[in-house]
Amino acid sequence: MTIAISLGFGYPKFVNCAQFSPKVAPENVCIIGAKDIDKGEKKFLDDNCITYFTTFDIAKRGIVQIMDMAMDVVLKSCDAVHLSFDIDVLDPLIAPGTGIISRGEGV
Fold first, then answer.
1. pLDDT at position 102
2. Of 19, 21, 18, 25, which Cα lies nearest the Cα of 78?
3. Cα–Cα distance between 78 and 10 in angstroms, integer?
4. CA dist., res. 43 & res. 99, Å (int)
5. What's the predicted TM-score (pTM) here?
6. N or C: the chain end with fewer CB closer than 10 Å?
7. C-beta of residue 52 within 8 angstroms of C-beta of residue 58
8. Residue 52: beta bridge partners?
9. C-alpha–C-alpha distance, residues 89 and 107, integer Å
């Protein structure tokens, strides 16, 4: 996970790029639309108190509520936001080029 490197976890040459680490605090990270989180990833996210919303959360609560919650997280202590968009979060019926066809159940 690219975000893990920015949080200070991973291969030291990547983690220490630009001679400082971590580059992002976990409380300033919010992942929206996560699918297929394995046990190790879930443990990493939970152990580091990283906020995340799965595709199931979006289906259950709606994207407007999820985005409001996400903005509450990142605007608490951030004056800028970086957005990274992974096409795999989209339904393959909408974006047939997506690589992950799972709907994200059981996450």
1. 59
2. 25
3. 24
4. 24
5. 0.78
6. N
7. no
8. 31
9. 13
